[in-house]
Design goal:
heterodimer; A: mainly alpha; ABC transporter involved in vitamin B12 uptake, BtuC; 12 helices; about 80% helix; globular; B: about 250 residues; alpha/beta; Rossmann fold; 2 domains; six-stranded mixed sheet; 8 helices; 9 strands
């Protein structure tokens, strides 16, 4: 971290005299490529609503971890999210209901369970607010280390599996006919999202997490013509929104998460205006 | 047109042999006692009404569906070696918004290098050589969701031809393709079959083109109802009964 702090001091920016801003800036530089990449596949595979549901299930896992008295409830949350993702994949493969209906069932049940457990015995719900709202400005060097490790793992995962995940996302039947294990691919990806969402939720909060998981990919789709452009645009747009949001938050005194999410929304609007025509 | 080799034993000339095939899903028997021989270089069309089990038959042949009976592939002139299969699925509908180009689709299907790295010069040449087989080099940078039915079939056909298979299996290749495109596609299949000495097995609803292109037609309605040359099958009593046609058969 000392190298990063030294680098920040070389920049002629007044806001960078604060360590918490330096931390948040580094977290954004790591998070943008991470969520930019995941976002491409989430949007192509129509899993936006599912990633939102996963965020809520992670909160339930944290509540269970707290009530069980586990020192680091985040690992309980990871276990719960992975179980949630696997159970969802299992039910989806054996049900004739639409995926969004099943996500609604799982999401509301998980949230209800989380609130039920959190308020058991008349406890206050407020201590969980940091997970729901989160604050990138309070990110610690340890959490940045976790984010960097998650990014490295996702990059390796992407290089190894992105081809088969893309084919499965654009057309599962075609993927199956090319010998790709479609069910296994889908389960692998949902499990990966479950782990990433849960490990990052306590650093950044649910609001910014869901925006970053959906909006960069959704914006890039408006203008990209192939997978290379799609990935580059998604990562770059996430980065622009992250940096712009941090500046706005500092100078206007607004919530960093909300500022970044609003920037992502504005970028989507701009991309929509320049969307590609059918060609 | 090649002569249809009747008879049970066909040795090396037989590329695909299906004997007493039956498929039961849950309590429903979808297929029973289906028999079929595809000889080297032949184009065999499987026809039947909706719900007759044509797609289930292809799934069983491709090993994607459990079945009872015998399905044997063999490479022509190479005893004991399994034939390579190329498969073109029923015209899949892609989302027009997906930012996936034809080149990306080839890389996702056939390359270990991640497609999001972009297409190298060598890969682009390879994809163009594949598309050239179906006269589709101009499609390489088009997004798959914006292709017409005929263009998409050509791209899927180019994919199925890499690597060159011994037998090409197509599920309803003519559906979603206009009349002019259907003739063009069948001409292309005929050209490919002759140039690369392939056998072709396809399901179809369109009977008008069969006499011109197919060597053998098999009428399936949960079982093999009849088989023979296109003229024989289309003029048969069984064909009229299955498709509820008054006398005269299909024109």
């Amino acid at each position: 971290m000392s190298v990063w702090y030294w680098l920040c001091e070389l920049l002629p920016l007044e806001m960078l005299r604060w360590d918490f801003i330096k931390n948040a800036l580094l977290a954004i530089l790591i998070m943008s490529p991470l969520f930019g990449l995941l976002s491409t596949m989430i949007v192509t595979g129509r899993m936006s609503f599912f990633s939102d549901a996963l965020g809520h299930s992670a909160f339930t896992g944290i509540a269970i971890g707290c009530i069980c008295g586990i020192a680091a409830p985040i690992w309980m949350a990871v276990a719960f999210s992975v179980a949630f993702a696997l159970l969802f994949s299992f039910v989806r493969s054996r049900s004739n209901q639409a995926a969004d209906t099943l996500i609604g069932v799982f999401s509301s049940t998980a949230v209800a369970l989380g609130i039920f457990i959190a308020t058991l015995g008349g406890d206050s719900f407020t201590r969980y607010n940091k997970y729901l709202i989160g604050d990138i400005l309070s990110v610690t060097p340890d959490q940045i280390g976790t984010l960097a490790l998650v990014l490295a793992a996702v990059l390796v995962f992407w290089v190894l599996f992105s081809n088969q995940l893309t084919l499965t996302a654009v057309h599962p039947q075609l993927a199956g006919s090319r010998g790709i294990p479609v069910g296994l691919s889908q389960t692998l990806f949902t499990t990966a999202i479950a782990v990433v969402v849960t490990l990052t939720i306590s650093s950044v909060g649910l609001l910014i997490l869901n925006s970053l998981l959906v909006l960069p990919g959704a914006s890039a789709r408006n203008i990209a013509r192939n997978l290379k452009q799609y990935h580059i645009l998604s990562v770059v747009l996430a980065l622009i929104a992250g940096l712009a949001g941090l500046f706005i938050s500092y100078y206007l005194g607004t919530s960093a998460g909300a500022s970044i999410s609003l920037c992502l929304g504005a970028i989507f609007g701009i991309c929509f205006c320049f969307r590609k025509r059918r060609a | 047109m090649r002569p249809f080799l009747h008879g049970g034993s066909c040795g090396d000339a037989c590329c695909l042999r299906v004997q007493n095939l039956s498929v039961t899903i849950g309590n429903n028997q979808i297929l029973s006692d289906v028999n079929l021989h595809v000889h080297c270089g032949q184009l065999v069309a499987v026809i039947g009404p909706n719900g007759a089990g044509k797609s289930t038959f292809l799934k069983a042949v491709l090993g994607q569906q459990d079945y009872d009976g015998v399905i044997v592939f063999s490479a022509p002139g190479q005893r004991g070696r399994k034939a390579k299969i190329g498969y073109v699925p029923q015209s899949p509908a892609f989302d027009p918004g997906d930012p996936v180009s034809v080149a990306d689709l080839f890389l996702c299907c056939r390359s270990r290098r991640p497609a999001f790295f972009g297409t190298s010069k060598k890969q682009r040449e390879w994809i163009l050589s594949c598309l050239d087989r179906v006269h589709g080099c101009d499609l390489i940078d088009k997004r798959i969701g914006t292709l017409s039915g005929g263009e998409l079939q050509r791209v899927l056909l180019a994919l199925a031809l890499e690597p060159l298979p011994n037998i090409l299996i197509l599920d309803e290749p003519l559906s979603g393709v206009d009349i002019e495109g259907q003739t063009g596609l069948m001409d292309m299949l005929d050209e490919i079959r002759k140039e690369y000495d392939l056998s072709i097995l396809m399901t179809t609803h369109d009977f008008s083109l069969l006499p011109r292109y197919a060597d053998q037609v098999v009428l399936v309605n949960h079982k093999t109802v009849t088989k023979g040359t296109p003229e024989e099958v289309l003029a048969s009593e069984e064909f009229r009964q299955v498709f509820h046609m008054p006398g005269g058969g299909a024109k």
